Amino acid sequence: MLIWWRGPGAASDLTGVPHGVLRREQLEALCDHTTLLRQAQEQAQALLAHAHEQAEAVRARAQQDAEALWAQAQSRIEAACEEGRAEGERQAAVAWHERQAGHLVQQADAVRGLHEKLAEVVTSAVERIVHSGDRAALFQRAMRSVQSLSRSATALTLKVHPDDAQAARDGIDSVAALQTAGLSVEVVADPALPVGSCVFESDLGVVDASLDIQLTALRQAMSRAVRRAVAED
Prior knowledge:
Blueprint: E1 2-4, E2 21-23, H1 24-132, H2 135-145, H3 147-151, E3 155-160, H4 165-173, H5 176-181, E4 184-189, E5 199-202, E6 205-208, H6 211-232
Parallel strand pairs: 3-4
Antiparallel strand pairs: 1-2, 3-5, 5-6
Helix pairs in contact: 1-6, 2-4
Keywords: Cytoplasm, Protein transport, Transport
Organism: Roseateles depolymerans
Family: Belongs to the SctL stator family.
C-alpha cells in the first residue's frame, strides 16, 4: 500500500521522501516520530515553565533577603547614630560639669582669698590698736581673762618684762574685783620674758595671757571664721 504525502507547500518535501510517497511502515514510523516530537516539545515547555517558576522563586527570596538585610543595616545605622548622639550628649554634659566645677573652685579660691585678706587686715588693725593702746588696759583685760584662776587662789604672781612692770601694776590696781576679794597680786619683772609677756602663776597653775598669745588666738579665730564662711558659700 502506498500513501501520497504532501506538505503545506506545493513544492515542499517535509518528510524527506522523494515525491511525497510513503509506504505504510514509513507512515507508522513518521507518526511515532511526530508523537515523540510533540512529547519532547511538551516536556521542554514544562521544564521551561518549571525553570521560570524556580527562577521567580529564587528572585523573590533574593528580594526578601535583600530587603531584610537593608532593614537590618538601616536599624544598625540608626542605632549607631543614636548611640553616637547619646555619647556626644554625655561627653558634653561631663565637659559642662567639669567647667562648672572649675568655675566653682575658682570662685571658692577667690572668696577664700578675699576672706583671708580681710582676716589679715582685721588682725593687723587689731594688732596696731593693741600695740598703740594703753599698756595698763592690756594687763587689766588680761587679769579679767584669768578671773577663774584668781577666784580660788590665795596668792597670785604676774610676771612681765621690766619695761611693762609699771603698766602691769597700774592695770592690776584698776581691777576692783581683786580689791573686793582681798586677793593680792604681786607683779614680778622678769628680764628673760619678752615685752608684752603676761604670765600668771598661782598655787592652782600657770596661765600665759601674753599679748602674742592673745593675738595668735585672734588669728586662729579669724582663720576658723574664714573657713566657715567659705564652706557656707
